[in-house]
Amino acid sequence: MTEAMTEAVEERQPPAAPWTPMAVVGVAQLMVMLDSTVVNVALPSIGGELPAGPSALQWTISAYVLVYGSLLLFGGRLADVVGRRRSFLAGLTLFTAASVLCGLAGNEELLVTGRALQGLGAALLSAAALSIVLAVYQVPQQRKIALTVWSGLGVLGATIGVVLGGLIVTAISWRWAFLINIPVGVAAFAAALPSFPALAASGSRPLRVPTAALATLGLACLSFGLIRLQDGATTASAWISLAAAAVLLTVLTLTELSASDPLLPLHLLRIPTYWLSSAGLLLAAAVMISSSYLASIYFQQVHDMSALAAGLALLPMGLASLAVALVVPKLVAALGPGGLYIAGAVAQLAGAGFLATGTSGVAATVVALAVIGAGLPSSFVPLYGIGSSHVRLQESGVGSGLLNTFNQTGAALGIAVVGTILAATVRDESGSGATAADATTTGVGHGFLALACCALLALVVALALHRLTRPSPPATRQT
């Protein structure tokens, strides 16, 4: 390439953008991810003060991640239609206002409602934030750095969340686990106004609000039915809810498959690597959030640990995830994405399988949780990479959005199933004369047994993906 041609290429490259927009969306996204785990160690305190039963406590987590996950694609559509900055600010405002409702809630109904509204705000905010990152940082090196930071926010948020939640609950009150979002949200809003550039909206596509509502209602009925099963397999409301979920999700599927401009790009599930990656993300998310949920209950109710002590006991799990996340690029180069996912599934299976034995030692539990934590980025990173790599470039946005939907849905369904197993086991064991601590230990063990089954399914998915993604051997030349 001649010097003149090089100069012409450099002239066509967009100038480097300032890092202020990345800082704003990064803080907001960190707040969103932190709220996925910050309440885990606060659940016993919430249940004692409101009061709230086991199902309400499950919904404190599930309502957030379920609405967040099911409306991510709608959030992306809204950002395209009304503008990224407007959508981001609307989501940030709703998330902050909902945090106030959660922090001041006087009963379990208001708390769950506030968490659902937080999930809606998070979906609008998060989808617009990623779109802003892609629009602002067009210089290849800047975009690479920005996306690396973005992908690390999930692990960092989950790690900070459990410790910060424990610290806040112990030092002040569980309510401040939500109210702390107010100054962060206000500061992010004030910083976004001058730092975000004008980003044009398409304004030509329909929002598809009915489709988004149908998806959310169907998943809510599914989660509600699974949670209600903790009252017994003969609970009529559970089966009615599960039947309603089956009808709603079937209607949703048929509608979207025939739509010319679908909100949910279900046709992508015809790609083997894509649907396997989606299934893997659902399973990995279930293991991730349910492990910290079960461990928090175990540490506080069996070993009488404070919320802060429980948060610190969960810290090695987050640190192990963070440590592995830092070397994932090297691991992918050495093992390949399929091989790395196999290693991650094996780690989750080993940790959850050990905890399924109902061990009563805190130290052993912390180590097993760290093993699970190490397996999480070894699953999430290759799954997102494999899933998105086999999607056409023009569908990359909706393709990554649907992968995120499976991720968050897995978290919601995981809590619903594991929480139900825990509650049903504790009820049965207590009815047989076991002490509260022994009943909870058995229930936690059964919960981890369910997660070990998830990890075993993940290993099957990993083996299939490894077979589909390994490079073909070079053809031998015949003379």
From TrEMBL:
It comes from the Bacteria. The chain crosses the membrane at residues 56-75, 87-106, 118-137, 149-172, 178-200, 212-230, 236-254, 274-299, 305-328, 340-356, 362-385, 406-426, 446-465. It holds the Pfam family MFS_1. Residues 21-470 form the Major facilitator superfamily (MFS) profile domain. SUPFAM superfamilies: MFS general substrate transporter. Keywords: Antibiotic resistance, Cell membrane, Membrane, Transmembrane, Transmembrane helix, Transport. It is found in: Cell membrane. This is MFS transporter. It comes from Streptomyces olivaceus.
